[in-house]
């Protein structure tokens, strides 16, 4: 497995498995001199951490990040990046590999079990190994470093839909995102989702979700056509998150149902460049940021680990049925919010440095 790295100038590599001793990331290309500490990165991991409510997996992982390299104390006593690779480690402390004994013998439908075995002729069945959503903790840690590179950008994500039930944008309240376990900006929807997710959890089933992410403060000019377009890099980054099955930029598929007039983003003169009258393009045109908010929506499939017996086959090709034991998210998209924010930060940090390298600005 050789493709575990992402980025061009600001580049990160993740390592580790769901049930290994630890996992982490190595961040390379970070500019020197940025103030950094474990305390700066930890809040993002805390937001993703499992076991914080009955609506997520009850695996108890503190997800404490350790910085192993790439930093040094300056004359002011504050740790700063040195420009060398930053190694981040998160220990696994609450693995229960015994829950996966049956999975060693048969493939879980909807999971990557068969695909990994078909490719490598070998797989880590304990929690899915590298295919587990546990890997995303490393991305969130790396994203904490990326945010230091783009202090001018504000990134906000939220769950906009669970199980087909959408929020009402007329009830949107950004402050509400941190007040409920669903990262939901609509208190009415959050109240409905409690029963929705509870019912799925109690029945041993699961639900899908849509996460929306907006980056404000991205200046015009980021993105490198033709093959490092900002929207293409964002799609690549988001589709690389485990359990993601769809990505939209701006209006996404709604644009295909619109007209040229309805889909255009009209402009008028403004004090600092154009003033846009709409943002159907999601802040990106021709693969380059326009200065408008960058908007991405990400679709998470329902968690494949469910208690309903499903038809499958053994490794020897024999018919059988399997249900998944263990502790699993009834809606994995809920904890996808900080992961989507992290991938947005990682792409934007990379594109900022790529833009600077090409234009000197």
TrEMBL record:
Binding residue positions for FMN: 130-132, 242-243, 286, 301-305, 327
Question: GO molecular function terms here?
Answer: chorismate synthase activity; FMN binding
Q: Which UniProt keywords apply?
A: Amino-acid biosynthesis, Aromatic amino acid biosynthesis, FAD, Flavoprotein, FMN, Lyase, NADP
The pathway this protein participates in, as annotated, is: Metabolic intermediate biosynthesis; chorismate biosynthesis; chorismate from D-erythrose 4-phosphate and phosphoenolpyruvate: step 7/7
Share an example GO biological-process annotation for this protein.
amino acid biosynthetic process
UniProt remark on cofactor binding: Reduced FMN (FMNH(2)).
Annotated Gene3D superfamilies: Chorismate synthase AroC
Give the reaction(s) catalysed. Answer: 5-O-(1-carboxyvinyl)-3-phosphoshikimate = chorismate + phosphate
One GO cellular component term of this record is: cytosol
Give one Pfam family, short name only.
Answer: Chorismate_synt
The EC designation for this entry is 4.2.3.5
| Cofactor(s) needed for function | FMNH2
Residues involved in NADP(+) binding: 48, 54
User: Which proteins does it associate with, and in what oligomeric form?
Assistant: Homotetramer.
Its function, per the record, reads: This reaction introduces a second double bond into the aromatic ring system.
- Known PANTHER family for this protein? CHORISMATE SYNTHASE
Tell me its family: Belongs to the chorismate synthase family.
Kindly provide the name given to this protein in its UniProt entry: Chorismate synthase
Taxonomic classification: Bacteria, Pseudomonadati, Pseudomonadota, Alphaproteobacteria, Sphingomonadales
């Amino acid at each position: 497995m050789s493709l575990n790295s992402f980025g061009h100038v600001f580049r990160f590599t993740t390592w580790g498995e769901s049930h290994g001793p630890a996992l982490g990331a190595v961040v390379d290309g970070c500019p020197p001199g940025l103030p950094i500490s474990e305390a700066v990165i930890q809040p993002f991991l805390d937001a993703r951490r499992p076991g914080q409510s009955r609506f997520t997996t009850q695996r108890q992982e503190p997800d404490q990040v350790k910085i192993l390299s790439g930093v040094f104390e300056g004359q002011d006593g504050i740790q700063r990046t040195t420009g060398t690779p930053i190694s981040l480690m998160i220990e696994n402390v609450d693995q229960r590999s015994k829950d996966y004994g049956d999975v060693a013998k048969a493939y879980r439908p909807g999971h990557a079990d068969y695909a990994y075995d078909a490719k490598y002729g070998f797989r880590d069945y304990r929690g899915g190994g590298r295919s587990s959503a546990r890997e995303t903790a490393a991305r969130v840690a790396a994203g904490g470093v990326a945010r230091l590179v783009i202090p001018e950008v504000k990134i906000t994500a939220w769950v906009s839909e669970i199980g087909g039930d959408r929020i009402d944008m007329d009830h949107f309240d950004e402050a509400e995102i941190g007040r409920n376990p669903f990262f939901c900006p609509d208190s009415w929807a959050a109240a409905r989702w409690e029963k929705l997710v509870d019912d799925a959890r109690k029945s041993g089933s699961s639900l899908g979700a849509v996460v929306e992410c907006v980056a404000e403060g991205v200046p015009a000019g980021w993105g490198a056509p033709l093959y490092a377009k900002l929207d293409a890099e964002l799609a690549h980054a988001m589709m690389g998150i485990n359990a993601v099955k769809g990505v939209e930029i701006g209006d996404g598929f709604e644009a295909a149902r619109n007209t040229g007039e309805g889909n255009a983003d009209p402009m008028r003169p403004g004090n600092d460049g154009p003033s846009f009258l709409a943002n159907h393009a999601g802040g990106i045109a021709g693969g380059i940021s326009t200065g408008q908010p960058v908007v991405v929506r990400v679709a998470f499939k329902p968690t494949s680990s469910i208690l309903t017996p499903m038809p499958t086959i053994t490794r020897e090709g024999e018919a059988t049925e399997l249900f998944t034991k263990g502790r699993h998210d009834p809606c994995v998209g809920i904890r996808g919010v900080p992961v989507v924010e992290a991938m947005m930060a990682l792409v934007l940090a990379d594109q900022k440095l790529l833009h600077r390298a090409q234009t000197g600005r």
